[in-house]
Amino acid sequence: MPSKKTDTKKKSTVTPWKHEPGWEKLAAGEEKKMEAYCKAYMQYLDNGKTERMAHDEALRQAVAAGFQNLDELVAKGKPLAPGTKVYRSCYGKTLFLARIGKAPISSGLNLVGAHIDSPRLDAKPNPLYQDDTLALLDTHYYGGIKKYQWVTIPLALHGVVFRKDGSKVTLSIGEDPADPVLTITDLLPHLGTDQARKTLAEAIPGEALNVIVGSKPVPKDDGDDDVSDRVKLGILRILKAKYGIEEEDFASAELEIVPAGKARELGLDRSMILAYGQDDRSCAFAAVKAILDASGTPQRTCAAVICDKEEIGSFGKTGMDSTFMENTVAELVALNEKGDAFVGTRRALEHSRMLSADVCALHDPAFGDVSSPNNMAKLNHGIGLCKYTGSRGKSGSSDASAEFMSQIRTLFNKANVAWQMCELGKVDVGGGGTIALYLARYGMDVVDCGVGLFSMHAPLEGSGKLDCYMAYKAYKAFYEA
């Protein structure tokens, strides 16, 4: 019989990369840190229902942590020593927080950018009117919403009004349990046959998003017999008595209608968060918290930028398409470095690296027909890395380089950050954009890196606690790199 040959081939050591939940990647005792972080995050959501409120809460925390007003330091003209913490605000809606590093600013910054505006309803310039026996606010929706989701839910009113004399009044109605709430009515099913035949986009038109604010008329014997809209007059009297506001003051007001109520833990196991405005305050809070907590003096100057207007294209003076961030970097260069400040600023921007901190869509088995399961973020699997966004043929995207992806992957692995690669959905179904392209135009490396959400742009969005915490860990590691 022939002798048996010994198999000298070695067994393969190649193992597939597993897309698995991140719970086992938490270090011993880290789950308590995660819970504490998420509690603080939920408080931030409650305190920051609008971009102004989110900005103010972040600024309050930064000042408490020792950040100084950059504009005031520029006026003094003294260079900023490594380790100095500074902030710069743009009209109370966009905020730049920086920690000065050891290296020249012109060698580049480590930036994390997120937006703090969220889909909502805005009061029109002439909002208050009466129809039949109801007083209502006429609204214009802001950002991409499904209009039918905004009817029959409790709503709150937030904003600022400037009176005729120029004084400012801040309104916040509907969040305190003792406050009244507002709402938008819907048609009862008994009379909704024709409505049911319409598409979801047509069933509730934009002009039907009128918010009920009152129904009680003022008495006829109070000296205003010639007034027909007595319910509207009653609301105007309340505004005048409580806030000193007159109807003409609506011309100089910003009033936003958002879902009323607090952020809540979701699930019997309390592993998720349900709240309004998690797109993109989940990433904004993580960016701010991480730069406040970053240890030591960084090698490179690091900065968090939380901005306005992303939901409507990042345009306007408080959007990322403005020159605010560019001008702020120029102030840092001019203050700290000799030579041509213009050239130094261009070098600083081109040599910078940025995490475009924006949310991504989670794979939802209820809507699997639009999902690309192998390339979708999954709940509590870690922070999502989107190499590119855009729509269909990558239109409107910023496509991160393989070199930069390698750097980020290595950094996150070293810092024990649970991460996953993802896209927004099937190629020809739709798509979306972020602020990444507005930073990539400077020549800097940029990649989208954020928390996955269920029900994105809905009045209430769902996130995973582990994903929120991993965003914080990821941004902190990036600042400290």
Describe this structure in words.
- With 481 residues, this protein is of the alpha/beta class.
- It has helices spanning 30-47, 51-64, 70-76, 193-197, 200-203, 230-243, 278-293, 324-336, 341-350, 402-414, 436-440, 465-480, and strands at residues 68-69, 85-90, 94-99, 110-115, 120-131, 134-142, 155-162, 168-173, 211-214, 253-259, 264-266, 272-275, 302-307, 353-356, 360-361, 383-386, 390-391, 419-421, 431-432, 445-450, 452-454, 461-464.
- It folds into 2 domains: 23-118 and 276-480, Zn peptidases (Aminopeptidase, 3-Layer(aba) Sandwich); 120-259, Aminopeptidase i, Domain 2 (Roll), CATH 2.30.250.10.
- The strands form 4 sheets. It has a 9-stranded mixed β-sheet with strand order 1-2-3-13-4-14-20-16-18, with helices on both faces.
User: Quick one: CATH class of the largest domain?
Assistant: Alpha Beta
Determine the mean pLDDT: 93
CATH architecture of the largest domain: 3-Layer(aba) Sandwich
Give a short account of the largest sheet: 9 strands, mixed
Structural class: alpha/beta
Proportion of strand residues: 15-25%
- What Rg do the Cα atoms give? 25 Å
CA-CA gap between termini: 65 Å
Count of separate DSSP helical elements: 12
Unreliable spans: none
- By CATH, the superfamily of the largest domain comes out as Zn peptidases
Helix content: 25-40%
- CATH third-tier fold name of the largest domain: Aminopeptidase
Give the overall form. Answer: globular
Number of domains: 2
Beta strand count:
22
How do the strands line up in the largest sheet? 1-2-3-13-4-14-20-16-18
